[in-house]
Amino acid sequence: MRLDPPKSDSPLAGALAACKRHLAYAAGFSALLNLLYLAPTLYMLQVYDRVVPTRGATTLVFLTVVLLFALGTLALLDLIRSRLLVRASMRLDRLLSPRILDATLARPAASREGLSRQALREFDVLRQTLTGVGVLALFDAPWTPIYILVCFLIHPALGLFVLFGAAALVFMAWRNELATRSALQRANEASNAAYVSQDYSAASADVVRALGMREALVRRHMAERESASQLQARASFAGGGYMTVTRFLRLSLQSLALGLGAYLAIEGKISAGAIFAASILMARALSPIEQVMGAWRNGIQARGAYSKLLALLGAAEPQRAQTLLPAPKGEVEAEHLVVFAPSGQQAILRDVSFQVSAGQAVGIVGPSGAGKSTLARTLAGAALPDRGGIRFDGADSRDWDAERLARHIGFLPQEPTLFAGTVKENIARFASFLDRDSEEVDEMVVQAAQACGAHEMILRLPQGYDTVLQWGGRGLSAGQAQRVALARALFGAPSILILDEPNAHLDAEGEAMLVRTLQELKSRGVTILVVAHRTGVLAAIDKLMVLKDGRVELYGPRDEVVARISGPPRHVPSAPSPAAA
Questions:
Q1: Does pLDDT of 65 surpass 90?
Q2: Of 235, 418, 558, 574, which residue is the least packed, with the fewest Cβ within 10 Å?
Q3: Gap between the Cα atoms of 228 and 193, Å rounded
Q4: Nearest 10 degrees: CA dihedral of 52, 56, 58, 61?
């Protein structure tokens, strides 16, 4: 298995370099182990050539004690070597897992490229290969020439015979690699695609049942599995044939080495003990080669995983020191934003530019497919623009630390997107995992829920704020999930609030509560951008933006824009007064 070296400044290179010492020690212990593997051969030579002819019982006892000491040392070194590899595996996981997870969450492009969903699974394949049985075979392989040299010392014919056997197995390994490389790669890709498809269906099992799609999707997934299984079978048949021939060769060579040794002993060219020593040395010389072939499939998978991880971590922007900017007051400016569809062939947003002053509330409307949700996601940092930029208080969004900036932006996506955990954890954006003061977090959670009128609704849940939700917020109704997601957007009193259809699942009472919440937030100087299909929420906004075909068609004061859209004056609900609220 050959891996192209990563760039010296990449996280992958750093993690592998950090484990070099573990692997170097493991290789050193492998050298000692392979020297000690000669002990049974030497013991047999001495027993048959010295002890048996002389009937030396004392010599036999002495030799046996030395052998047991050597074997005990061998076992201890093997234990230490395995523990070193386990430590290396744990260190790789500790160093790379956070970087991989961060890269999958930080780069929206990674999801479009299909790199993120399987990233940790690919990493586990690589980690297990680099610290598993396969690497032990690679550590033992360089000692094959030593065993061949010992065979030459016993007799040149034995040495040549073992050399021929090793060359034959290496040739079979090379042919196996040529025959299985592309087949294994296609099989792994098909298998991963099948797993991803099954994950999507399992996550939407209730919709599948409701639409009567269960049987159809079962057949579809079985067809995907069948395709992957066919590809894996072809690779296994190709590799299995070479493995069978290799096993036959190794066993035959080991037995033939015994026969050759017996012939040389009959001819008086070697001693009786050398007969058995030849067979043992042949086994030790060929064993690493067979082990490497046995781990070949894992090696192919690890090479593919390595390439994918290089691409994923290479896509992540390099860490750079950034000046800590003050918390934004709320001014938002978009400069010639362009966002392409995942296919890269069609623009969803086309040269979008506008400015929102701090404390203003802007409604974003337009027909379906106009790019409203994409604009909201891009402003919130959930998606990255392909061209153009976004400024907060005059500073380019790329000059901010993304995590720090996100704390000052409240974002409610079109779908609530709640996570497995308690209601409190979801509202708090899982801040408890950042070692923040629990009492402070609890207070901020309640304040956020009260600000959007979700507090009483949450208290009526079975365990209140400690009610455990499943992935996607299962356990709540659509309206309840949207209120919890709105409370999450308000957590930490952000200065900028971006809401994508916040009233989509709310009844009339909930919508009225939302309007009052937006009016209250606006009075505090919070900048609000609201994507809306239902006009009720527009009562709380100051300006209106109309998107069409990814472009800003109209933008200005609400009443003026409404008048230009509808022609004659049209009634738009007014925001409730503080007294009415």
A1: yes
A2: 574
A3: 9
A4: 0
DSSP 363-375: EEE-STTSSHHHH
Helix (H, G, I), strand (E, B) or coil at 559: helix
Strands 409-412 and 496-500: parallel
Q: What is the pLDDT of residues 469-519, one digit of tens each?
A: 887 777 888 888 888 999 999 998 899 999 998 887 777 787 888 888 888
| % of the chain at pLDDT higher than 90 | 18
SS3 for 62-93 is HHHHHHHHHHHHHHHHHHHHHHHHHHHHHHHH
Tell me the range of 176-190, 321-335, 344-358 where mean pLDDT is highest: 344-358
Token pair 């069409």: residue: 548
Nearest to 531 by CA among 411, 432, 420: 411
Map out the domains of the chain with their CATH numbers: 11-315 (1.20.1560.10), 328-408+495-581 (3.40.50.300), 419-493 (3.40.50.300)
Distance in angstroms (rounded) separating the CA atoms of residues 471 and 461: 17
Q: How many CB atoms lie within 10 A of CB 218?
A: 12
Distance CA 97, CA 143 (A): 34
Q: Where do we find the tokens 């009415």?
A: 580
- Short-list 79, 118, 290, 264, CA closest to 198: 118
Give the Cα separation of 209 and 195 in Å (integer). 20
Half-sphere exposure of 313 (CA within 13 A, CB side): 27
Rounded to whole angstroms, the Cα distance separating 28 from 139 reads 9
**CB 350, CB 385: distance < 8 Å:** no
Question: CB neighbours of 118 closer than 8 A, spacing ≥ 6?
Answer: 192, 195, 196, 308
**pTM strictly above 0.70:** no
DSSP letters of 148-208? HHHHHHH-HHHHHHHHHHHHHHHHHHHHHHHHHHHHHHHHHHHHHHHHHHHHHHHHTHHHH
* Reported confidence tier of residue 222, pLDDT bands at 50, 70, 90: confident
Judge residue 245's burial from the number of C-beta atoms within 10 Å of its C-beta, 0-12 exposed, 13-18 middle, 19 or more buried: middle
What are the tokens at 406? Answer: 């996100």
Collect all residues with Cβ–Cβ distance below 8 Å to 176 and sequence separation of at least 6: 238, 239, 242, 243, 246, 293, 296
Contacts of 127 (CB under 8 A, 6+ apart): 89, 92, 93, 96
